[in-house]
Specification:
The complex is a heterotrimer of chains A (about 200), B (about 100) and C (about 425).
Chain A lengths: L3 E3 L3 H24 L8 H29 L12 H14 L15 H26 L4 H4 L5 H25 L8 H8 L1 E3 L1
Helix pairs in contact in A: 1-2, 1-6, 4-6
Chain B lengths: L1 H27 L30 H11 L3 H5 L3 H4 L2 E2 L5 E2 L9
Chain C lengths: L6 H4 L24 H4 L20 E3 L3 E3 L4 H5 L7 H8 L37 H4 L2 E2 L2 E2 L26 H5 L14 H7 L6 H5 L9 E6 L6 E2 L2 E2 L1 E3 L5 E4 L3 E6 L5 E5 L3 E3 L13 E6 L9 E15 L4 E2 L13 H4 L2 H12 L8 E10 L39 H31 L1
Parallel strand pairs in C: 5-14, 13-16
Antiparallel strand pairs in C: 1-2, 3-4, 5-10, 6-7, 8-9, 9-10, 11-14, 12-13, 14-15, 14-16
The chains are: A mainly alpha (about 200), B mainly alpha (about 100), C alpha+beta (about 425).
Protein name (chain B): Cytochrome c family protein
InterPro entries (chain B): Multihaem_cyt_sf
Membrane topology (chain A): Multi-pass membrane protein
């Protein structure tokens, strides 16, 4: 019954893992700038944070281009079906050894819950972080650009976004281990081929 | 096609290495500190002035001798803070060393 | 204290001759002292108690220090532009001794190395005072009481009349520039700081780097004697910690400044002005500025704490007569604060109730000199740190690394912790079930 499907193309995998690395690095350096951690020293933490942020923006630009040109954006379009079943699966079904109610297919790689989470990430969290980061970097232009904001408030929203990313990272990392065998999803994201 | 890509990559790596080493040398070079603000060389030797070739009995005589040539200096200087120790504030109060109090 | 009633001691640093009482004639130009600034021989010195006159024959000051007779003709024939030494004759010794008052100006600036002062570095740029304190017709640039140093936030272009006394006059408003490149990303954020942080704040990391400076002066204990003899107790820094004439003193070296918002102007409490004495020191001389003042920037200061005579009835600071002969009421001769206060206030024409108490006062000195080399400048973490940073007391700005919204941090951390607990429990349950099977 085990069937191998090629789900994640080379670019998709490159994009996913470099994004993951950048986000983890941004969280570390960001929370150092915030004063919660001490790893690199403030100056280096700041510079690395900006470099990594710029890298993430460039990567995101490529990813947007890729999603639009390949039509892969459709994978993120939210659907209603099976959401209660999936919730039931993660709360109870998984412990009873029941199968996942959603079947992965090359034309629908993401389950409805993933779609919701990822589209929230892409449409809300990423723009929030990019916009607040841009504002924080250019606070001296605000008066010329007609922006009325306080540094404190913008920093607050950027920090809130960082906590949201951290929250996502914890849940997401854990859920990648819920395949069968437990490393199935992770192997799929590395090699592109996943057993279904 | 592949070969062309590798050649290009190699070419750029080479250029980058050479460029980096050249710049590295520049950075290492010690640039002598420029002496931007050398005081202007004087156009007068004060020891040659007749007005100063005197046996001055009091410092005021020296000042008079100075002012015999620098004939605007007295009027200029007597209005300055170094002489008046007085500064008329924008609020009308009198500041300056002669008027303020401190804790030394 | 004050000049009034103490003329001949204080006016030994006046660029003039004979200011011995309030009747000095400021219109007599021959009373100007040209030589004190324009001497290039280093032999011209004014005697400390002679109302601005130089010693014309050998004289001893305070029973110890010999002042040689000045050869006026020799000095007059060797005049020239001012030097660090000629300005320093007074300015290095303000407060009554080397480095006592300023904390950023002392006699080590006669020939400093680069470590002490990048601009005056005798083997490097070798600036004189007048290199920055640009002078036109004897008018010397600087901050004068309620008037900020000229030059504004502008470069020293001719249209700004060549005022060069501010850092930004030469260095501009985005002062950090890469050496070999046209542009360096790393310097962008450093340059952004100049809107709210003065250059001095990072580039004068410590003060009193040359000589020790006085940081505390309690006049109330002055006038104690041992067996009828004056007491001078020396401290570890080679400066007196008790002196019968002066009281209790504290000194410091390599000190961390305090930081305040500063718009280039100062406020003063003048003698005769009413001021309440509370538990906090009275800020007799303090910088003006607040975070909402667009001209104000964060600036380093040397705070000088003192305890000085005060009239509790009239609620005014007292001008005491310190210097004078026996019987004149001078404190240094008669050792009586009430008599000294009566004599000083009478000379100033101010009312005095006859009562003397002592109040705590504080005087802030703006630090602008002894700029350290760039490698000694403060690093980001000196201020961008949660607790104990240099700017821990500065309000009105959001300082990343120091500031946060604690509620947000709590909510965020709690949610992440809950998520972590949930996935841990979920995972453990899966592992246990897997083993059971």
């Amino acid at each position: 019954m085990a069937q191998k499907l090629y789900l994640y193309s080379r670019f998709e995998r490159f994009w996913h893992w470099s994004q993951a690395a950048l986000i983890i690095f941004l969280l570390l350096t960001g929370f150092e700038i915030h004063g919660s951690l001490e790893i690199f020293g403030y100056e280096k933490a700041y510079l690395y944070h900006v470099y990594a942020g710029v890298a993430l923006v460039i990567l995101t630009a490529f990813a947007i281009f890729w999603h639009l040109t390949t039509g892969a954006w459709r994978h993120y379009w939210p659907v209603k079906e099976k959401i209660p079943q999936i919730c039931y699966y993660y709360v109870i079904g998984i412990f009873r050894g029941e199968p996942h109610p959603f079947e992965k297919r090359p034309d629908q790689k993401l389950n409805p819950l993933q779609r919701l989470a990822y589209i929230f990430l892409k449409l809300i969290l990423f723009p929030l972080q990019f916009i607040t980061a841009f504002l924080l970097l250019t606070y001296q232009w605000w008066s010329y650009l007609g922006i009325e904001a306080t540094f404190r408030k913008v920093a607050l929203w950027h920090t809130a976004g960082a906590f949201a990313f951290l929250f996502f990272l914890i849940i997401h990392t854990y859920l990648t281990t819920t395949g069968r065998p437990w490393y199935n999803h992770i192997r799929g994201m590395i090699l592109g081929w996943e057993e279904v | 096609m592949r070969l062309a890509v590798w050649v290009l990559i190699g070419w750029w790596l080479g250029v980058a290495t050479v460029w980096g080493s050249v710049r590295g040398q520049n950075v290492g070079e010690q640039i002598a500190a420029p002496k931007y603000f050398k005081p202007p060389v004087s156009t007068a030797d004060h020891s040659k002035f007749e007005a100063l070739k005197k046996d001055f009995k009091s410092p005021q005589e020296v000042t008079k001798a100075c002012l015999s040539c620098h004939n605007k200096a007295g009027e200029q200087f007597k209005k300055t803070l170094h002489f008046t120790w007085t500064w008329r504030g924008k609020d009308g109060r009198l500041y300056g060393k002669a008027h303020v109090i401190n804790n030394y | 204290m004050a000049v009034t009633s103490n003329w001949c001691r204080c006016t030994s640093c006046h660029a003039g001759y004979g200011w011995k009482d309030k009747n000095f004639d400021f219109n007599k130009v021959e009373n100007i002292d040209c030589l004190v600034c324009h001497d290039t021989t280093g032999t011209y010195k004014k005697f400390p108690t002679d109302c601005g006159y130089p010693p014309l024959k050998d004289k001893v000051f305070a029973g110890k220090k010999l002042f040689k007779a000045v050869n006026l003709s020799f000095v007059a024939q060797h005049v020239g532009p001012s030097t660090r030494e000629s300005c320093g004759k007074c300015h290095f010794y303000s407060g009554g001794g080397d480095g006592v008052k300023r904390g950023d100006i002392d006699s080590t600036l006669i020939a400093p190395d680069k470590k002490l002062d990048v601009h005056m570095d005798a083997k490097g740029l070798n600036f004189t005072c007048a290199t920055c304190h640009t002078t036109t017709a004897h008018e010397i640039d600087g901050r004068h009481y309620d008037t900020p140093a000229p030059g504004g936030l502008a470069l020293a272009f001719p249209k700004y009349e060549g005022h060069r006394v501010r850092c930004e006059s030469c260095h501009g408003l985005r002062p950090h520039r890469p050496k070999q490149k046209l542009f360096d990303w790393r310097l962008v954020k450093l340059n952004d700081h100049t809107d709210r942080v003065a250059c001095q704040t990072c580039h004068i990391p410590l003060y009193a780097r040359g000589r020790p400076t006085n940081i505390y002066w309690d006049w109330s204990t002055a006038g104690q004697f041992k067996d009828g003899k004056p007491i001078v107790k020396m401290g570890p820094l080679g400066r007196p910690v008790y002196h019968s004439k002066k009281g209790t003193l504290k000194w410091g070296r390599d000190l961390v400044p305090v930081y305040r918002w500063y718009n280039g102007t100062y406020s003063y409490i003048l003698p005769g002005e009413k001021v309440e004495a509370g538990p906090e020191p009275i800020e007799i001389i303090k910088p003006n500025g607040s975070p909402t003042d667009p001209k104000a920037r964060i600036f380093p200061f040397k705070p000088h704490l003192g305890k000085q005579p005060y009239d509790p009835v009239n609620k005014t600071l007292i001008i005491p007569k310190l210097f004078g002969p026996k019987g004149s009421g001078a404190f240094w001769a008669d050792h009586d604060w009430k008599a000294a206060a009566a004599a000083g206030m009478a000379a100033a024409g101010l009312p005095f109730s006859g009562e003397v108490t002592f109040v705590k006062t504080i005087y802030y000195h703006a630090l602008s000199h002894m700029v350290a080399p760039k490698e000694d400048a403060l690093k980001c973490g000196a201020c961008h740190i949660r607790k104990g940073g240099r700017l821990a007391d500065i309000s009105g700005v959001y300082l990343p690394g120091r500031d946060r919204v604690p509620e947000l941090d709590k909510i965020g951390a709690t949610l992440c912790l809950i998520a972590l607990c949930l996935v841990t429990i979920h995972g453990l349950a899966r592992i246990i079930l897997a083993f059971k099977k």
